[in-house]
Predict the structure.
Amino acid sequence: MTPSVTSSSSLSPPPPSSSSSSSSLSSLPFTSPFMNSTPASQTPGSPSTPPESASPQAALSLYGIARRYCREEILVTPLRWTGRHLELLQCSFGKPLPEPTTAATQSMTEEDYSEERSGTLHLEDFFRYYYKAQFREQGIRLLLTRDGCPLVAYDAVRLYFNGCVAKRMECVSLCLRGDDQEGLEHRRPVAGFIDRSHIELLRKETIGYRSRHYNPPILRLYNKKWRKISPPEPLYDPYIVALLIGVAQQKRRHFQEVNSSEEAVHGMVSVLSTFYSKGKSEVIGEEAYMGWMYLYQANIPSSLLDMFENANAPPSSQPSVTVQVITISYAPLATLRARLLELLLPETLASTVHYGSSPGRKRKYDGQGTAQPSSREAPSG
Protein backbone atom coordinates (compact mmCIF):
# COMPACT_ATOMS: atom_id res chain seq x y z
CA MET A 1 0.00 0.00 0.00
CA THR A 2 1.56 3.25 -1.16
CA PRO A 3 0.61 6.59 0.44
CA SER A 4 0.00 9.65 -1.68
CA VAL A 5 2.97 11.92 -2.31
CA THR A 6 3.17 15.01 -0.13
CA SER A 7 5.00 18.27 -0.69
CA SER A 8 8.65 18.68 0.23
CA SER A 9 7.68 20.74 3.25
CA SER A 10 6.12 17.66 4.83
CA LEU A 11 9.50 16.01 4.86
CA SER A 12 11.05 18.58 7.15
CA PRO A 13 11.91 17.57 10.73
CA PRO A 14 9.17 18.02 13.35
CA PRO A 15 9.00 21.41 15.10
CA PRO A 16 10.25 21.65 18.68
CA SER A 17 6.83 21.66 20.32
CA SER A 18 5.51 18.19 21.09
CA SER A 19 1.95 19.26 20.31
CA SER A 20 2.85 20.63 16.88
CA SER A 21 5.08 17.65 16.31
CA SER A 22 2.23 15.19 16.66
CA SER A 23 0.15 17.12 14.15
CA SER A 24 2.96 17.19 11.62
CA LEU A 25 3.58 13.45 11.87
CA SER A 26 0.32 12.72 10.10
CA SER A 27 1.77 14.44 7.05
CA LEU A 28 4.95 12.36 7.06
CA PRO A 29 4.08 9.12 5.25
CA PHE A 30 7.60 9.07 3.87
CA THR A 31 9.59 9.30 7.07
CA SER A 32 10.74 6.01 8.45
CA PRO A 33 9.29 4.78 11.68
CA PHE A 34 11.55 4.42 14.69
CA MET A 35 13.14 7.66 15.33
CA ASN A 36 13.02 9.95 18.31
CA SER A 37 11.86 9.51 21.86
CA THR A 38 14.61 8.27 24.09
CA PRO A 39 15.68 9.77 27.40
CA ALA A 40 19.09 11.39 27.19
CA SER A 41 20.47 8.79 29.56
CA GLN A 42 19.75 5.93 27.18
CA THR A 43 22.67 4.80 25.07
CA PRO A 44 21.54 3.99 21.51
CA GLY A 45 22.61 0.57 20.36
CA SER A 46 25.55 0.33 22.73
CA PRO A 47 27.55 -2.88 22.38
CA SER A 48 25.52 -5.66 23.87
CA THR A 49 23.68 -8.77 22.96
CA PRO A 50 20.76 -8.15 20.58
CA PRO A 51 17.68 -7.02 22.51
CA GLU A 52 15.20 -9.74 23.28
CA SER A 53 12.07 -9.71 21.20
CA ALA A 54 9.02 -8.55 23.12
CA SER A 55 6.09 -10.84 22.45
CA PRO A 56 3.42 -8.07 22.21
CA GLN A 57 5.53 -6.37 19.56
CA ALA A 58 6.70 -9.42 17.65
CA ALA A 59 3.84 -9.52 15.13
CA LEU A 60 3.36 -5.78 14.70
CA SER A 61 3.90 -3.85 11.48
CA LEU A 62 5.75 -0.54 11.53
CA TYR A 63 2.47 1.36 11.64
CA GLY A 64 1.29 -1.04 14.34
CA ILE A 65 4.34 -0.27 16.46
CA ALA A 66 3.80 3.47 15.92
CA ARG A 67 0.19 3.13 17.07
CA ARG A 68 1.14 1.05 20.10
CA TYR A 69 3.66 3.68 21.21
CA CYS A 70 1.60 6.64 20.06
CA ARG A 71 2.75 8.79 22.97
CA GLU A 72 6.29 8.66 21.64
CA GLU A 73 7.71 10.38 18.57
CA ILE A 74 8.18 7.36 16.34
CA LEU A 75 7.62 8.65 12.80
CA VAL A 76 10.47 11.12 12.40
CA THR A 77 13.47 11.67 10.15
CA PRO A 78 16.40 9.21 10.54
CA LEU A 79 18.60 11.99 11.92
CA ARG A 80 16.32 12.00 14.97
CA TRP A 81 16.50 8.26 15.55
CA THR A 82 17.56 7.35 19.06
CA GLY A 83 18.25 4.22 21.05
CA ARG A 84 14.50 3.69 21.36
CA HIS A 85 14.17 3.22 17.62
CA LEU A 86 17.03 0.73 17.55
CA GLU A 87 15.30 -1.14 20.37
CA LEU A 88 12.03 -1.29 18.43
CA LEU A 89 13.89 -2.38 15.30
CA GLN A 90 15.76 -5.05 17.30
CA CYS A 91 19.12 -3.56 16.25
CA SER A 92 22.32 -3.45 18.29
CA PHE A 93 26.01 -2.68 17.80
CA GLY A 94 28.87 -5.04 18.55
CA LYS A 95 32.11 -3.96 20.16
CA PRO A 96 34.81 -2.61 17.79
CA LEU A 97 36.91 -5.35 16.23
CA PRO A 98 40.47 -5.11 14.87
CA GLU A 99 40.93 -4.94 11.13
CA PRO A 100 41.07 -8.40 9.54
CA THR A 101 44.03 -9.40 7.41
CA THR A 102 43.13 -9.27 3.71
CA ALA A 103 44.64 -11.37 0.94
CA ALA A 104 46.26 -8.49 -0.96
CA THR A 105 47.94 -6.88 2.01
CA GLN A 106 49.12 -10.24 3.30
CA SER A 107 50.90 -11.12 0.07
CA MET A 108 52.16 -7.62 -0.86
CA THR A 109 54.20 -4.94 0.87
CA GLU A 110 54.21 -1.14 0.72
CA GLU A 111 57.08 -1.26 -1.78
CA ASP A 112 54.82 -3.10 -4.25
CA TYR A 113 52.48 -0.12 -4.52
CA SER A 114 53.14 2.75 -6.91
CA GLU A 115 51.90 6.25 -6.15
CA GLU A 116 49.06 5.85 -8.64
CA ARG A 117 48.11 2.46 -7.35
CA SER A 118 48.07 3.48 -3.69
CA GLY A 119 46.23 6.75 -4.36
CA THR A 120 48.19 8.56 -1.66
CA LEU A 121 48.19 11.81 -3.66
CA HIS A 122 44.48 12.12 -2.86
CA LEU A 123 45.27 12.09 0.85
CA GLU A 124 47.42 15.22 0.89
CA ASP A 125 44.50 17.59 1.57
CA PHE A 126 42.96 14.90 3.75
CA PHE A 127 45.78 15.31 6.26
CA ARG A 128 46.57 18.97 5.59
CA TYR A 129 43.02 19.93 6.60
CA TYR A 130 42.34 16.90 8.74
CA TYR A 131 40.42 18.96 11.28
CA LYS A 132 37.71 19.71 8.68
CA ALA A 133 35.06 17.05 8.06
CA GLN A 134 34.59 17.97 4.39
CA PHE A 135 38.25 17.28 3.63
CA ARG A 136 38.16 13.97 5.47
CA GLU A 137 35.17 12.92 3.36
CA GLN A 138 36.69 14.25 0.14
CA GLY A 139 39.98 12.44 0.69
CA ILE A 140 38.43 8.99 1.18
CA ARG A 141 35.95 9.61 -1.64
CA LEU A 142 38.78 10.38 -4.09
CA LEU A 143 40.87 7.50 -2.77
CA LEU A 144 38.12 4.97 -3.59
CA THR A 145 36.88 6.39 -6.90
CA ARG A 146 39.98 7.61 -8.82
CA ASP A 147 42.86 5.96 -10.72
CA GLY A 148 40.80 3.13 -12.19
CA CYS A 149 39.05 2.13 -8.98
CA PRO A 150 35.83 0.17 -9.59
CA LEU A 151 33.63 2.53 -7.58
CA VAL A 152 31.66 5.66 -8.44
CA ALA A 153 30.32 8.12 -5.85
CA TYR A 154 26.89 9.71 -5.52
CA ASP A 155 25.63 12.22 -2.99
CA ALA A 156 22.94 10.36 -1.07
CA VAL A 157 21.34 7.07 -0.09
CA ARG A 158 17.56 6.91 -0.43
CA LEU A 159 15.46 5.39 2.31
CA TYR A 160 12.24 3.81 1.02
CA PHE A 161 9.01 3.55 2.98
CA ASN A 162 5.84 1.96 1.61
CA GLY A 163 7.41 1.77 -1.84
CA CYS A 164 8.28 5.47 -2.06
CA VAL A 165 11.35 7.51 -1.23
CA ALA A 166 10.89 8.54 2.40
CA LYS A 167 14.14 10.38 2.83
CA ARG A 168 17.19 11.32 0.83
CA MET A 169 19.88 10.63 3.43
CA GLU A 170 23.00 12.72 2.91
CA CYS A 171 26.23 10.75 2.62
CA VAL A 172 28.62 9.49 -0.05
CA SER A 173 26.98 6.56 -1.82
CA LEU A 174 29.61 4.23 -3.32
CA CYS A 175 28.35 2.08 -6.20
CA LEU A 176 29.96 -0.23 -8.73
CA ARG A 177 31.33 1.41 -11.85
CA GLY A 178 30.80 -0.21 -15.24
CA ASP A 179 29.06 -0.03 -18.61
CA ASP A 180 26.47 -2.54 -17.45
CA GLN A 181 25.50 -0.13 -14.65
CA GLU A 182 25.08 3.00 -16.77
CA GLY A 183 21.43 2.62 -17.77
CA LEU A 184 20.16 1.31 -14.45
CA GLU A 185 17.92 3.27 -12.15
CA HIS A 186 19.38 1.43 -9.17
CA ARG A 187 23.12 0.86 -9.43
CA ARG A 188 24.60 -1.90 -7.34
CA PRO A 189 25.56 -0.27 -4.04
CA VAL A 190 28.79 -1.12 -2.27
CA ALA A 191 28.71 1.11 0.80
CA GLY A 192 27.65 4.40 2.30
CA PHE A 193 30.27 6.79 3.68
CA ILE A 194 29.93 9.79 5.97
CA ASP A 195 32.04 11.66 8.50
CA ARG A 196 30.86 11.72 12.10
CA SER A 197 30.98 15.54 12.23
CA HIS A 198 28.81 15.70 9.10
CA ILE A 199 26.13 13.66 10.87
CA GLU A 200 26.30 16.01 13.85
CA LEU A 201 25.90 19.06 11.60
CA LEU A 202 22.90 17.56 9.80
CA ARG A 203 21.32 16.58 13.10
CA LYS A 204 21.71 20.10 14.49
CA GLU A 205 19.93 21.46 11.43
CA THR A 206 16.84 19.44 12.35
CA ILE A 207 16.38 21.51 15.50
CA GLY A 208 17.55 24.73 13.81
CA TYR A 209 18.87 27.25 16.34
CA ARG A 210 19.73 30.28 14.16
CA SER A 211 19.20 33.26 16.47
CA ARG A 212 21.52 36.18 15.74
CA HIS A 213 21.41 37.31 19.35
CA TYR A 214 22.14 35.49 22.57
CA ASN A 215 18.77 34.31 23.86
CA PRO A 216 19.09 32.21 27.05
CA PRO A 217 15.54 30.71 27.02
CA ILE A 218 15.83 29.66 23.37
CA LEU A 219 19.33 28.34 23.94
CA ARG A 220 18.14 26.24 26.89
CA LEU A 221 15.33 24.82 24.76
CA TYR A 222 17.80 24.06 21.97
CA ASN A 223 20.19 22.29 24.36
CA LYS A 224 17.33 20.25 25.81
CA LYS A 225 16.26 19.07 22.35
CA TRP A 226 19.87 18.39 21.39
CA ARG A 227 20.46 16.19 24.41
CA LYS A 228 17.35 14.24 23.49
CA ILE A 229 18.47 13.30 19.98
CA SER A 230 22.27 13.31 20.31
CA PRO A 231 23.69 9.80 20.87
CA PRO A 232 25.64 9.53 24.15
CA GLU A 233 28.26 7.43 22.32
CA PRO A 234 28.83 8.71 18.74
CA LEU A 235 30.42 5.39 17.77
CA TYR A 236 26.97 3.79 18.00
CA ASP A 237 24.97 6.37 16.07
CA PRO A 238 21.42 5.29 15.04
CA TYR A 239 21.84 7.18 11.74
CA ILE A 240 24.38 4.52 10.74
CA VAL A 241 21.64 1.88 11.04
CA ALA A 242 19.36 3.97 8.82
CA LEU A 243 22.13 4.18 6.21
CA LEU A 244 22.67 0.40 6.37
CA ILE A 245 18.96 -0.17 5.77
CA GLY A 246 19.01 2.29 2.86
CA VAL A 247 21.99 0.53 1.25
CA ALA A 248 20.24 -2.85 1.69
CA GLN A 249 17.08 -1.48 0.08
CA GLN A 250 19.02 -0.21 -2.93
CA LYS A 251 20.80 -3.55 -3.20
CA ARG A 252 17.46 -5.36 -3.31
CA ARG A 253 16.07 -2.96 -5.91
CA HIS A 254 19.19 -3.40 -8.03
CA PHE A 255 18.79 -7.17 -8.18
CA GLN A 256 15.09 -6.81 -8.93
CA GLU A 257 15.86 -4.40 -11.78
CA VAL A 258 18.43 -6.70 -13.43
CA ASN A 259 16.21 -9.77 -12.83
CA SER A 260 19.00 -11.48 -10.96
CA SER A 261 18.35 -14.76 -9.23
CA GLU A 262 20.88 -13.77 -6.55
CA GLU A 263 19.20 -13.12 -3.22
CA ALA A 264 19.73 -9.47 -2.38
CA VAL A 265 19.90 -10.05 1.36
CA HIS A 266 22.88 -12.40 1.08
CA GLY A 267 26.11 -10.78 2.15
CA MET A 268 26.71 -7.79 4.35
CA VAL A 269 26.01 -4.15 3.57
CA SER A 270 28.56 -1.57 4.69
CA VAL A 271 28.91 2.01 5.89
CA LEU A 272 32.27 3.76 6.37
CA SER A 273 32.68 6.59 8.85
CA THR A 274 35.66 8.87 9.48
CA PHE A 275 36.12 11.24 12.40
CA TYR A 276 38.80 13.40 14.00
CA SER A 277 40.92 10.53 15.29
CA LYS A 278 44.57 10.78 16.24
CA GLY A 279 46.96 8.06 17.36
CA LYS A 280 50.26 8.09 19.18
CA SER A 281 53.26 9.18 17.13
CA GLU A 282 56.90 9.73 18.01
CA VAL A 283 56.94 12.66 15.59
CA ILE A 284 55.08 15.75 16.81
CA GLY A 285 52.40 16.83 14.33
CA GLU A 286 51.98 13.44 12.69
CA GLU A 287 49.40 11.98 15.07
CA ALA A 288 46.74 12.13 12.33
CA TYR A 289 48.66 9.59 10.24
CA MET A 290 48.16 7.14 13.08
CA GLY A 291 44.41 7.78 13.13
CA TRP A 292 41.67 5.37 12.17
CA MET A 293 38.15 5.10 10.77
CA TYR A 294 35.29 2.67 11.30
CA LEU A 295 33.58 0.21 8.98
CA TYR A 296 30.05 -0.82 9.96
CA GLN A 297 28.69 -4.02 8.44
CA ALA A 298 25.44 -5.89 8.95
CA ASN A 299 23.21 -8.50 7.39
CA ILE A 300 19.84 -6.80 6.95
CA PRO A 301 17.19 -9.58 6.90
CA SER A 302 14.51 -9.61 4.23
CA SER A 303 11.82 -9.48 6.93
CA LEU A 304 13.06 -6.03 8.00
CA LEU A 305 13.19 -4.81 4.39
CA ASP A 306 9.64 -6.11 3.90
CA MET A 307 8.48 -4.13 6.94
CA PHE A 308 9.71 -0.92 5.33
CA GLU A 309 8.28 -1.94 1.95
CA ASN A 310 4.80 -2.42 3.42
CA ALA A 311 4.39 -0.60 6.71
CA ASN A 312 0.94 -2.12 7.29
CA ALA A 313 2.09 -5.75 7.05
CA PRO A 314 3.52 -7.49 10.13
CA PRO A 315 6.74 -9.44 9.54
CA SER A 316 6.67 -13.18 9.04
CA SER A 317 9.40 -13.42 11.69
CA GLN A 318 10.77 -10.82 14.08
CA PRO A 319 13.94 -9.38 12.47
CA SER A 320 17.09 -8.86 14.48
CA VAL A 321 20.22 -7.02 13.36
CA THR A 322 23.66 -6.88 14.96
CA VAL A 323 25.97 -4.26 13.44
CA GLN A 324 29.62 -5.30 13.29
CA VAL A 325 32.13 -2.50 13.87
CA ILE A 326 35.64 -2.83 12.38
CA THR A 327 38.49 -0.44 13.17
CA ILE A 328 40.61 0.45 10.11
CA SER A 329 43.95 2.19 10.68
CA TYR A 330 45.19 4.68 8.11
CA ALA A 331 48.76 3.41 8.42
CA PRO A 332 50.35 2.13 6.31
CA LEU A 333 48.88 4.65 3.86
CA ALA A 334 50.26 2.85 0.81
CA THR A 335 47.90 -0.08 1.39
CA LEU A 336 44.86 1.81 2.69
CA ARG A 337 43.06 1.81 -0.67
CA ALA A 338 43.68 -1.90 -1.22
CA ARG A 339 42.55 -2.77 2.29
CA LEU A 340 39.34 -0.77 1.97
CA LEU A 341 38.48 -2.22 -1.44
CA GLU A 342 38.99 -5.76 -0.22
CA LEU A 343 36.72 -5.20 2.77
CA LEU A 344 34.01 -3.44 0.76
CA LEU A 345 33.83 -5.25 -2.57
CA PRO A 346 32.12 -8.58 -3.15
CA GLU A 347 34.59 -11.44 -2.91
CA THR A 348 34.53 -12.21 -6.63
CA LEU A 349 35.47 -8.63 -7.50
CA ALA A 350 37.99 -8.05 -4.75
CA SER A 351 40.22 -10.85 -6.00
CA THR A 352 40.50 -9.43 -9.53
CA VAL A 353 40.28 -5.65 -9.21
CA HIS A 354 43.18 -3.22 -9.02
CA TYR A 355 45.86 -5.69 -8.05
CA GLY A 356 47.59 -6.13 -11.38
CA SER A 357 50.89 -4.42 -12.06
CA SER A 358 50.54 -0.66 -12.17
CA PRO A 359 53.14 1.71 -13.62
CA GLY A 360 54.30 4.80 -11.82
CA ARG A 361 57.05 5.86 -9.48
CA LYS A 362 56.97 4.36 -6.03
CA ARG A 363 56.76 6.54 -2.97
CA LYS A 364 55.43 6.11 0.52
CA TYR A 365 53.43 9.26 1.18
CA ASP A 366 53.99 10.83 4.57
CA GLY A 367 53.42 14.50 3.86
CA GLN A 368 56.86 15.39 5.23
CA GLY A 369 59.10 12.67 3.83
CA THR A 370 59.06 10.49 6.92
CA ALA A 371 58.33 6.83 6.29
CA GLN A 372 55.07 5.67 7.81
CA PRO A 373 55.03 2.72 10.20
CA SER A 374 53.87 -0.58 8.78
CA SER A 375 51.98 -1.78 11.83
CA ARG A 376 48.29 -2.37 11.13
CA GLU A 377 47.14 -3.08 14.66
CA ALA A 378 43.88 -1.26 15.24
CA PRO A 379 43.69 1.22 18.10
CA SER A 380 41.14 0.56 20.77
CA GLY A 381 38.12 2.79 21.11
